[in-house]
Amino acid sequence: MTSTRSATRVAFRLTVRPEMIDAYIARHSPVWPEMLAEIEASGRRNYSIFLDRPTGTLFGYYETDDDEAARAYLASSAVAARWEASMAEFFTDLPGRADQAATPLAEVFNLHDQLTESTPS
Predict the structure, then answer these.
(1) Does residue 28 have an active-site annotation?
(2) Does residue 87 contact residue 14 with C-beta atoms inside 8 Å?
(3) Looking at 5, 13, 28, 82, which residue is catalytic?
(4) Which strand ranges, in their side-by-side order, compose the sheet holding 7-15?
(5) For residues 103 and 116, what is the distance between their CA atoms, to the nearest angstrom?
(6) CB within 8 A of 66, min separation 6: which ones?
(7) Which contiguous run of DSSP H or E holds residue 63?
């Protein structure tokens, strides 16, 4: 998790059960409109999920101005609770809701930040 330009970039990894990959993709095609609205209302933006189909590894990324507030908003959302309950069957080794239990990955490189830092003022 890295903060820059007043936004926090958050990346996370989860694993989908191999036998459920197609169903997971179908569940996101499309996501419930009310869940999309809750994600947006939480302050998360530029949100993407990528899938490595052979392994079931998901890589998620989003930006937010306040990740703690976004997590709290979703934790208290009835819509998010229903969505996460419907998604729980897809994941391996996940203690709790995916939107609350996914551990952020450490950012080790960002092109924009390094170019900005190396450009003389």
Answers:
(1) yes
(2) no
(3) 28
(4) 2-4, 7-15, 57-64, 45-52
(5) 28
(6) 8, 43
(7) strand 57-64
What is the tally of helices (H) and strands (E) in the chain?
6, 4
pLDDT per position as a tens digit, 85-116: 999 999 988 888 888 888 889 999 999 889 98
What is the rounded end-to-end Cα distance, in angstroms, of the chain?
26
CB 16 within 8 A of CB 56: yes
Residues 6+ apart with CB under 8 A from 101: 94, 95
pTM of the predicted model as reported, rounded to 2 decimal places = 0.86
Cα separation, 102 vs 41, whole angstroms: 20
Q: Token match 């191999």: residue?
A: 18
Sequence letter at residue 34: E
